[in-house]
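Q: Got a minute? One more chain.
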Amino acid sequence: MIEYILCFILFCIGLYCVLRKRNIIKIVIGLGIVEYAVNLFFVLIGFRMHGRAPILAKDQTISNMVDPLPQALVLTSIVIGLAVTALIVAIAIRLYEKYGTFDITKIRRLRG
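A: Always. Here it is, folded:
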């Protein structure tokens, strides 16, 4: 149970960075922390104490297997998170080239 609480605290720290910080780089780091917290939560859902890998043989039954679905979701989430982070960093670099700052309160004249 303590692992879920620590995962929630990690999620709250990342959410705080996203909502309260005004520097784009700190917001990107906060999004990364939120992503890691969600991935950790998915892995914790599929975890079983003294569980075995979900590999079955013809004459073997395993009663205490680890759930492979959250692991597959986490692998997909890592790839998607990497792409989103790369996109946000590219946008941040463009904003810095145009306005000379990473502070979102100083960027006033955004044009679509």
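A: The chain has a mean pLDDT of 87.
Q: Perfect, thanks.
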